[in-house]
Amino acid sequence: MLEVQGLTLQITVDGEPVRAVSNLSLNIQPGRVLALVGESGCGKSLTAQALLRLGEFQGVKKTSGKILLEGIDLDAMDRESLRKVRGGKISMIFQEPMTALNPVFSVGSQIVEVIRLHLDMNKQQALARAKQLLHDVGLQQVEQLLKQYPDSLSGGMRQRILIAMAMAGDPDYIIADEPTTALDVSVQKRMIHLLRNLQRKRNLGMLLVTHDFGLVAEMADDVAVMYAGEVIEYGAVADIFEAPSHPYTQALMQCRPEANREKHATLKVISGQVPAPGRWPSGCRFAPRCTKKIASCTQNDIALNCWQSPSGDSSISPSPHMARCLRVAELQ
Ligand SMILES: Nc1ncnc2c1ncn2[C@@H]1O[C@H](COP(=O)(O)OP(=O)(O)OP(=O)(O)O)[C@@H](O)[C@H]1O
Ligand SMILES: [Mg+2]
């Protein structure tokens, strides 16, 4: 299991340190897909990057919490162990394929490099594996493809190559940060099926970062809803789709295109914006935008109304700050 326990991340805004993720806990289990959803700017990518300690390169500091890979703390790993984990145990699929592929190396040399970094294979064996991986992600004429450079390929092909590269080191976990948003709609669907099939076939644990509830319904087993740096609801997809508890989750669900299918319906939106890190209001962070708030929701010292996962799945350990909604019981 890949576990996030009480993660708090700090960034720098105008020279000042501010919290961007607070006390966040998640479990990514083998063979299951956990979706991390929420509006833009709520800290999804920061959280995803923290799972591989990638934020450190961009000035993001972990001030508390733990990332445990099968019980081993990532902080306790030396550089060599961490290098093996990145791509070998946990792989990442980024949103923008062009930034993740190196334009000056051929597709073949990039995949072979990842394979040889993580698996004990000679060049010939690695090349054979690279061809197989390209087949597995639905690409054809792979001999030719291996010699090509990323900029001569379509967006869909590049994303398939990135997925093949993510599988190259035979990882146990995949972190996919908005893996389809840069692609056009027809390609998106095929890519989702490809990812889902690979995840099932290889029994991978996956963290899928998205703001697309359609994608959550299609791919995920569990979902964590994030708002302004914290998880406010967490549980099995079926339960949360059927009965979202927190008013933020309810509002997000009402904004789905599928929920606005009646004739002449105007697409609902949540008014206002996610507050930026450093500007989180006191009390419930969603309260200023919440149509169901009561006076006490905005008080600094609100009693936290801890709420367990609706699935009753004891393997999901909710953060103590989850669902800081004073009205959860009343609204259900
Ligand atoms: N390296 C960084 N340094 C300073 N601020 C950052 C850094 N990375 C992210 N932020 C800020 O932290 C907040 C959360 O960013 P993050 O990228 O995690 O959002 P997100 O939920 O992934 O949004 P989106 O859906 O738009 O990708 C944003 O306000 C962002 O501007
Ligand atoms: Mg993001």
Characterize the structure shown.
It is globular and about 70 Å long. It has one domain (2-89, 171-331): P-loop containing nucleotide triphosphate hydrolases (Rossmann fold), CATH 3.40.50. A hairpin with a 2-residue loop joins β9 and β10 (230-236). The chain has helices at residues 44-50, 79-88, 97-100, 107-118, 123-136, 142-147, 155-168, 185-201, 213-219, 237-242, 247-254, 328-331; strands at 2-13, 16-28, 33-37, 61-69, 72-73, 90-93, 173-177, 205-210, 222-227, 230-236. The strands form two sheets. It has a six-stranded mixed β-sheet with strand order 6-7-8-3-9-10, sandwiched between helices. By secondary structure, it is an alpha/beta fold. Helix content is 33%, strand content 21%. Adenosine-5'-triphosphate binds at residues 11-12, 20, 38, 40-46, 58-60, 211, 276-277.
SS-derived structural category: alpha/beta
Number of helices: 12
Shape: globular
For this structure, the CATH topology is Rossmann fold
Residues in β-strands, percent: 15-25%
The order of strands across the largest sheet is 6-7-8-3-9-10
Name the CATH class: Alpha Beta
- The number of strands is 10
Biggest beta sheet summary: 6 strands, mixed
What's the CATH H-level homologous superfamily? P-loop containing nucleotide triphosphate hydrolases
